[in-house]
Amino acid sequence: MNSTVGYARVSTREQNSEAQEAELRAAGAQRVFVDRGESSRVKDRPQWVACLDYLRPGDTLLVRRLDRIAGSERMAIETINELHDRGVNIKSLTEPDIDTTTPMGRALFGIVAVFAQLRVDTIRQNTMRGLEHARAQGRVGGRPTVMSPERISAAVQMRAQGQTLMQIASVLGVGKSTVARALAKHADGAPEGAPSR
């Protein structure tokens, strides 16, 4: 016999999940899994993993909103596609177009998924084009370095005197890895902030 299984999530342990649970049970969920204090961007939430393990082909996963199971549009699409491949339906109580239990719902979700994936791909392509343009202009992405020429010079002198990376970092007020990168680039003859080859 196919089951309707609910999944609820609250972001902090102080939040009350009872309202979500009640809604899911009222909508027909025979069993409800609840994660408390877990981020939707984390895939291996304890009760979410248990819920996925519990679901069988023909079952329906019931959620209040898609953001309960996924922290991004792409993650939601991947999750729904994975459920579809397992023969598990999904239904959202507050998003009518997310209901793969009906032919129309499956068709609508397919259209939504295509446009969402297109948006993700477009954002990625625009980002890559922007980075390529920045590199062509001699700019490199990432945070600006904290290692000024004066700090690099001081680090080189301290290193020559036998001080450890940790000691140098402590004196300069930066991280050990920052000192190591700066010294490596200095040894290669590349200015700090230039891309490593």
Textual characterization of the structure:
The protein has 197 residues and is α/β, with parallel strands linked by helices. Among the domains are: 4-95, Rossmann fold, CATH 3.40.50.1390; 149-188. It is 50% helix and 11% strand. The protein is built from 7 helices and 4 strands; from the N terminus they run βαβαβαβαααα. The protein has helices at residues 18-26, 46-54, 73-85, 103-136, 149-160, 165-172, 176-188; strands at residues 4-10, 31-36, 60-63, 89-92. The protein has a 4-stranded parallel β-sheet, sandwiched between helices. Strand 3 (60-63), helix 3 and strand 4 form a beta-alpha-beta unit. Helix 5 runs antiparallel to helix 6 (165-172). Mean pLDDT is 82; it is low at 191-197.
Keywords:
single chain, about 200 residues, alpha/beta, Rossmann fold, 7 helices, 4 strands, about 10% strand, disordered C terminus
